[in-house]
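Write out the bound-state structure for biotin.
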Amino acid sequence: MSHLIAVLNILSDGRFHSGQSIGSTLGVSRTAIWKSIKKIRQDWQVEIQSVTGKGYRISGGLNLLDADSINSTLSESTQTQLYLLEVLFSVKSTNQYLMKKVGSGIRSGHVVIAEHQSAGRGRRGRDWLSPFGQNLYLSILWEFVEPISGLSGLSLAIAIAILRSLKKAGISDAGLKWPNDIHWHGKKLCGILLEMKGEESGAWNVVIGIGLNVNMQYDHSEVITQPWTSLQQITGAVMDRNTIVVNIIKELFEVLEQFSKKGLEVFREEWILNDVTMNKTIKLHTAQDTITGIVRGIDDQGALVLEVNGVSQHYHAGEVSLSYNEPLC
Ligand code: BTN
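---
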């Protein structure tokens, strides 16, 4: 693994490097480099060009995640909330990684980010496509002492944290889609997945997973079943993922602290203001049914408030899709 990482580090500058020169830098043969390139392409789906007479190149280079740079850019107050930041090259799922460690001494404020996930998890049992080095796959462990009922609105509050960080980065027209998607003009930009484990003490360990499309540009539409976009597509520029991580961690910690003390209530108004489906007719797909109604906001538990045939109904689970192709913005 460390050998593959060394090859990638050399190629991350976006220039051509011959197999010979990479091999002599790393003290291995040209054939060994060729095998590494093959493995990197296969295992991590990194697009590496090879041109006869020039060598190998990653077009556009790679902006790799860098724990030192992230740690040193975090403000002092955020650093005190951070228990540990781990940067992994490849993992099945950052959520699974943290869930497995719960109960083995890890603490609230443990953050894991990865360049690649081989089995990224999405909501409702779906996969989360996680190509190497392009997006953000981040999970954070947080311990709550309250009973589980108080946590139902947490995923909505987390979406607010991400939205705040995006707005500060200049993405002003992103919005929220219940329960916790971030959308931009009808396309999904970010998804959030919460997984929980209870303790005998009554405390709850929550792993909060965030998948944000940052520099993904290829058409993965055959794998992704819904319209998607990325920060690069929105801004037209390659985004620095290390800066994005710093901003997200800061906003996440602030929201988590506030949510631990006051619950969802303090975020409700902001949620409703940013809900891209507000007052629109939607379809809510639940395990049993599909309900058509007009979105009228969320309640203090984070349930979706739908007006169905003139009557207000509250729903705690389901998937929202727009009815009659109304534009989302
Ligand atoms: C969704 O389906 O909208 C939720 C997607 C959540 C994906 C993130 S990526 C980091 C973390 N690790 C995972 O396996 N899933 C979450």
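---
The domain at 2-57 is CATH 1.10.10.10 (Arc Repressor Mutant, subunit A).
The first helix runs from residue 2 to 11.
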